[in-house]
């Protein structure tokens, strides 16, 4: 019969993730070693490695379990044909606006964690290689969004000549740039609220890929 983690093991795992998120956010991903994370979680490195194989794996789980969720929505939207039928079907504009909201919040929280890697090119390269070996990385959200838009194009809900990869790059790029500006130069003082930002970005994007002249009359 399959075994399940005990309550104590689950508590240790949660404590490790809490400590990892705090250490990565305050001292940066580059300096948050497994030894430092274990110390902050009040456990041994040996205990840490019972739950996670590497710091990169810890980072992946911090992104999935401790930051605003983005992947579940993208997974849902790419799981099958677009929900283009029925009165309760969400429009492309609604889907993209929700993606933009979540992406903006996700990058806002994740950028301060990973920013320290950019000061050490060799470490950044090793981290990127490790993330790709785990089947993840910063390229994944844009790839998933492009896959969703391919489905919408096939369903006729965006223009047949629309470029899903370019549209995904524009939306995700805007969200990540917002996170960078929030982190430096006093950007937080003048930042547009995330709800207004998401609506504006998507409506501007749809002006180029919507099947009609106005996103308000988008085909459903």
From TrEMBL:
<dbReference type="InterPro" id="IPR039536">
    <property type="entry name" value="TetR_C_Proteobacteria"/>
</dbReference>
<dbReference type="GO" id="GO:0000976">
    <property type="term" value="F:transcription cis-regulatory region binding"/>
</dbReference>
<dbReference type="GO" id="GO:0003700">
    <property type="term" value="F:DNA-binding transcription factor activity"/>
</dbReference>
<keyword id="KW-0238">DNA-binding</keyword>
<dbReference type="Pfam" id="PF00440">
    <property type="entry name" value="TetR_N"/>
</dbReference>
<feature type="domain" description="HTH tetR-type">
    <location>
        <begin position="10"/>
        <end position="70"/>
    </location>
</feature>
<dbReference type="InterPro" id="IPR036271">
    <property type="entry name" value="Tet_transcr_reg_TetR-rel_C_sf"/>
</dbReference>
<protein>
    <submittedName>
        <fullName>TetR family transcriptional regulator</fullName>
    </submittedName>
</protein>
<feature type="DNA-binding region" description="H-T-H motif">
    <location>
        <begin position="33"/>
        <end position="52"/>
    </location>
</feature>
<keyword id="KW-0805">Transcription regulation</keyword>
<keyword id="KW-0804">Transcription</keyword>
<dbReference type="InterPro" id="IPR009057">
    <property type="entry name" value="Homeodomain-like_sf"/>
</dbReference>
<dbReference type="InterPro" id="IPR050109">
    <property type="entry name" value="HTH-type_TetR-like_transc_reg"/>
</dbReference>
<dbReference type="Pfam" id="PF14246">
    <property type="entry name" value="TetR_C_7"/>
</dbReference>
<dbReference type="InterPro" id="IPR001647">
    <property type="entry name" value="HTH_TetR"/>
</dbReference>
